[in-house]
């Protein structure tokens, strides 16, 4: 019995050691793109990306590098490898901006996304991230000593988390862009959010809900309680599209982004999504 108890304690210790979060690491990564939007009217896009990092929630960016251009390809596998010194305490994010290279005009914007580097590490150094324009990036370890998983397994869920539940959450945002400027005088938008969901990276979008409009602010806090039926065994993603409510013209787009619902649950039902254009969207349990 004592031997059995000793083995149980040892197994628990090993499990805890395996689940311990990595706080610092030198990361080598490479990137692939899938289903990128085609910006060329004749022919196929010639995509490349630039990658940056931020330690201040996206307020500033420092360039890591630029990939090669892959010609005539909407599903590129870039061969470039980049290195990054990960420090969890600095809360680092990567910012990827994908372009279509053009010789005779300005390069087209194919899509952008922010990735929390801690999430990348906690998922076994592989993550799939939806771009704001369409398609997605796969970022994975390029270190031969690492053993990245074949698919993003997700951040570990807290002990005792049920397999499914109805999530109730509220939204707020900070530092949104403004669209109602008058000359050099900055205006204040009247933002609202439309929320849809998918199963998988390219699944059909289904309506989840819409917030009310909050007038005259760049830092709205919507009082609406939104609900979503979550199942941990499905690759569920929420798509947030933020607009400026205008009565006399088409509503302006203020930003959009995606989250994996499993990540929201794993983080205690609180999540900060850095928007590709500007600002952040915050989800909190209601």
From TrEMBL:
**Disordered: where is this region?**
143-162
Q: Which residues form the C2 domain?
A: 6-131, 147-275
* Keywords, sorted A to Z: Signal
Query: Carries keyword Signal?
Result: yes
Q: Does the keyword Signal apply?
A: yes
Q: Which positions make up the signal peptide?
A: 1-19
InterPro entries linked: C2_dom (IPR000008), C2_domain_sf (IPR035892)
| Gene3D superfamilies given in the database record | C2 domain (2.60.40.150)
TM ranges are: none
**Entry's PANTHER family?**
C2 DOMAIN-CONTAINING PROTEIN (PTHR47800), FER-1-LIKE PROTEIN 6 (PTHR47800:SF5)
Name of this protein: C2 domain-containing protein
Organism per entry: Orchesella dallaii
């Amino acid at each position: 019995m004592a031997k059995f108890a000793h083995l149980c304690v040892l197994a628990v210790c090993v499990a805890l050691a395996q689940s311990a979060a990595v706080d610092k690491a030198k990361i080598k990564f490479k990137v692939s793109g899938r289903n990128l939007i085609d910006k060329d009217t004749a022919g196929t896009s010639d995509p490349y990306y630039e990658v940056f990092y931020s330690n201040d929630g996206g307020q500033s960016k420092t360039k890591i590098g630029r990939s090669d251009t892959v010609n005539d390809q909407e599903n590129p596998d870039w061969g470039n490898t980049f290195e990054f010194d990960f420090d969890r305490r600095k809360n680092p994010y990567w910012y990827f901006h994908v372009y279509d290279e053009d010789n005779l005009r300005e390069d087209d914007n194919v899509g952008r996304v922010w990735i929390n580097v801690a999430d990348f590490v906690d998922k076994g150094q592989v993550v799939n991230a939806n771009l704001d324009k369409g398609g997605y990036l796969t970022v994975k370890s390029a270190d031969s000593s690492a053993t990245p998983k074949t698919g993003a397994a997700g951040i570990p869920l807290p002990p005792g988390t049920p397999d499914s539940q109805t999530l109730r959450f509220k939204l707020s945002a900070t530092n949104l862009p403004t669209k109602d400027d008058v000359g050099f005088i900055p205006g204040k938008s009247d933002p609202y959010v439309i929320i849809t969901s998918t199963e998988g990276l390219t699944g059909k979008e289904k309506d989840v809900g819409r917030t009310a409009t909050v007038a005259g602010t760049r830092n709205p806090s919507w009082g609406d309680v939104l609900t979503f039926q979550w199942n941990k065994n499905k690759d569920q993603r929420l798509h947030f599209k933020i607009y400026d409510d205008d009565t006399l013209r088409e509503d302006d787009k203020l930003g959009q982004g995606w989250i994996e619902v499993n990540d929201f649950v794993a983080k205690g039902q609180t999540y900060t999504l850095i928007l590709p254009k500007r600002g952040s969207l915050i989800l909190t349990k209601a």
